[in-house]
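Subject: Sanity check before I submit

Could someone independently write out the structure tokens for this chain? I want to compare against mine line by line before I put it in a report. The sequence has 281 residues.
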Amino acid sequence: MTRQYRRLLSCPAWPWFVLQTEDLTWNGSFNWTKFKTTIENWKSTKSSEILANPGAPSVCCGFLVSIEESNDLGNLHGLIFNGLDNGGNPIFSDENEDGINCVCEADMTTVGNGLPNSFFGLSQQLTYKNFTMDFFIRGAFGHQLFNLPRLFYESPGRVNEGINAVQTQFFDPNQTEPIRTSSFQVEDANFINFDFITLSYDFDFPKIKWIEHFRFYVTLTNPITLTDYSGSTPEVRLKDPGTNDNGSIEERPLSYVALGIDRRNTYLPMKGWILGGKFRF
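---
Independent answer below. Compare away.
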């Protein structure tokens, strides 16, 4: 089995020294990465494959990712959703133009891509007299996620006859039939995240021999995430643990080519704060 990928990668990084005065120091760095990944050779026995099934219950059939030579790595696979008819039933595009809306593999196509086309990171430190503020911001752009919690829990008729169904900004109360895996559950997942912000104050003790210095600090972790994604987190999914039927978690080999799938067992990212101090004797 041979798998080869072609990656076009640009990773400029710009450190800078912004300002320094007697009381103020401001410095930081910025990096930006842009890339594109194309599959050159997949397997000796076949040049394309569809994989990553959503799992049970009710939507066990169909696959979420397509692999094809000379195409992009990370392509998401499904039907094209074109809204609801007057009866609340989903309408899907007739992609192969055979005049038959079969709601099947013949009409499935690429509905997004799980790999971003760019990342960035911004690190800053600002010191004024005895105060110091550090923070790190990063982001990813150009990727989509297959929101499987919406597939399972947002469709009336699939969960408790619509009672307590998930209601994101995409929810349509006129829907009467479950919507199959399609572009309806694929969302842009661009994001900017503040990984941490630390504010500290330094105390000096020139008259105390056994304590030279003390720093008091407060750190916030993941305090702010800017995104339009409706799921638990817009973070890039670079590996897939496989189906988690009925929400369970099973031990199985990870797939590193099934990208961009937000499974039902994805937990919310931790947000927290730390209050601390450092002594120098």
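---
OP: Matches mine. For the report I'm noting this point. Residues 148-153 form the longest helix (6 residues).
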